[in-house]
Amino acid sequence: MKKTIPLIIILLILVGILLNKDKLYEEYHNYILKNKIENITPPVTNEYYRLNNFNYVQITNDYVPNNKQELLNIIYTIISSGQTEYTFYCPKEYETCLNDVNNIAENQSILSDINNFVHPYNSFKHIETKYDNTREVTITYTKNYTEEDIRLVNQKIDYLYSKLYKQNDTVVNNLRRFHDYVANHSAYDSNRADNNIIKYKSDIAYGPLIEGFSLCGGYSDAIALYLDRMNITNYKVSSQEHVWNAICINKKWYHLDLTWDDPITDTGQNYLLHDYFLINTKTLESKNIKQHEYDKTVYSELQ
User: Fold this and answer.
1) Smallest Cα–Cα separation from 219: which of 164, 267, 253, 180?
2) HSE of 82 in the Cβ direction (CA atoms, 13 Å)?
3) Whole-angstrom distance between the N-terminal and C-terminal Cα of the chain?
4) Which residues are CB-neighbours of 237 under 8 A, at least 6 positions away?
5) Do the Cβ atoms of 189 and 219 come closer than 8 Å?
6) What's the chain's Rg over C-alpha atoms?
7) Alpha-carbon gap, residue 230 to 225, rounded angstroms
8) C-alpha 174: how far from chain center
């Protein structure tokens, strides 16, 4: 009889382990997750990393989200940093974290809005979000600009800045000269817009500045790059069909739409307008253009 006691004890231990295996697994998983969270490091930033905080998204130093806004801030900071792959973790206490991650990942409008707040050279043309039940989330993306694109565009921006920027002149006049130069030296890429014939990189600043052809994305990127060169706070604004620039001058926000200031004509005649050069939201709305209907909860500085 005494010989059976150890066996019974072993069986009881095994039964206990089997009955509590889910709890033990959870405790082990929580330990691993806690360790990963404690050892997380910030993304590596490049020279185009913007430190700007806006109403919609803010740069963060905390990569452990507790709510959806903090998730948005983390994603914005990752993209803004220029690091094209980064992993963070959803803490157990944030129960809906993975659902919120999924909702953001599947909402192209949200991702595009975030993209509008980062430096054009760090902006993405494709982004993926992967996550699993270990609460690990990995963001990977490819950028809109190659290193060669950046080199050539920077050369052109530097050249134009040396020719057009006057140290003792106003921000408005300095920006107007660049606005006018781009409008006079590029044309709207109708073949790409209307027929999807892609001959130029007209969706980025390379198009208008190097090739002389542009879509609204190219115009707005060119303006954004020059504004950054002037150390003027800015971001891009997008509607469902269009994108243009928002600019902060003397603590007031204005719209600038170079696409609409460089119109297409039936005769092919080149026009240079200033109808959308540094106008406020009231003026923009008075023009009653559907393409300029944007989400004011995202771009709320413009109100």
Assistant:
1) 180
2) 15
3) 86
4) 116, 243, 244, 245, 246, 255, 294, 299, 302
5) no
6) 26
7) 9
8) 27
Question: Which residue do the tokens 């800045």 mark?
Answer: 161
Rounded Cα distance between 168 and 164, Å, is 12
Strand ranges for the chain from DSSP E: 85-89, 124-131, 136-143, 187-188, 213-214, 234-238, 243-249, 252-256, 277-279
Estimate to the nearest angstrom the gap between the alpha carbon of 225 and the chain centroid: 15
Angle value at C-alpha 204, between 164 and 273, nearest 5 degrees: 50
Q: Domain 147-302 belongs to what topology? A: C8orf32 fold (3.10.620)
Where does 171-274 have alpha helices with state H? 171-184, 190-195, 206, 216-229, 258-261
Kindly list the distances between the CA atom of residue 301 and the CA atoms of 254, 276, 287, 293, in Å, as whole numbers in the listed order: 9, 18, 20, 15
Tens of pLDDT, residues 257-272: 999 999 876 656 677 9
Q: In the chain, where are the structural domains located?
A: 1-39, 41-143, 147-302
Tokens 């089997």 label which residue?
Answer: 18
Q: How far is C-alpha 283 from the chain's CA centre?
A: 27
**Beta-strand pair 213-214/187-188:** parallel
pLDDT tens track for 20-74: 555 554 554 565 667 788 889 999 999 999 999 999 999 999 999 999 999 999 9
Residues in CB range of 28: below 8 A, 6 or more apart: none
Q: Which pTM value belongs to this model?
A: 0.89
Main-chain dihedrals φ then ψ at residue 49, nearest 5 degrees: -70, 120
Q: Judge contact between 55 and 117, C-beta under 8 A.
A: no
How far are the Cα atoms of 50, 99, 180, 211 from residue 185, in angstroms, in the given order? Answer: 29, 47, 9, 9
